[in-house]
Design brief:
single chain, mainly alpha
Length: 108
């Protein structure tokens, strides 16, 4: 049993983006492939941002370390995905505005 699993309404799954990206690339429609990748980035970032909305600024380094660890483990577990990651390295994703909460000031 997953101790981190929250009870309640499950997250609605989306159709995977990569099959559509591969089709667009096979059709040499690189503009469409980039558009799909950017749409996916916006959607997935939205999900991650909600989950991390209340992370204190003092813990941001820990969150960065965790994201890098997750990425490394996903690539290790799925070598095919790792190859796609390498292929997508030249692609620029849209900028992200990330807000953190400042630590509360102690009052006397």
């Amino acid at each position: 049993m997953n101790p981190f699993k929250k009870k309640g309404k499950p997250i609605k799954p989306t159709a995977p983006y990569m099959p559509a990206v591969r089709v667009a690339i096979d059709e040499k429609d690189f503009v469409r492939a980039l558009q799909i990748i950017q749409e996916a980035a916006v959607e997935y970032y939205g999900r991650i941002a909600k989950a991390e909305a209340n992370i204190p600024v003092n813990d941001v380094a820990l969150v960065i370390k965790l994201h890098r660890h997750i990425a490394n483990e996903l690539e290790r577990a799925d070598p095919v995905a790792a190859e796609y990651v390498k292929a997508m390295e030249p692609i620029d994703l849209p900028p992200i505005e990330y807000q953190t909460i400042q630590p509360a000031k102690k009052t006397k």
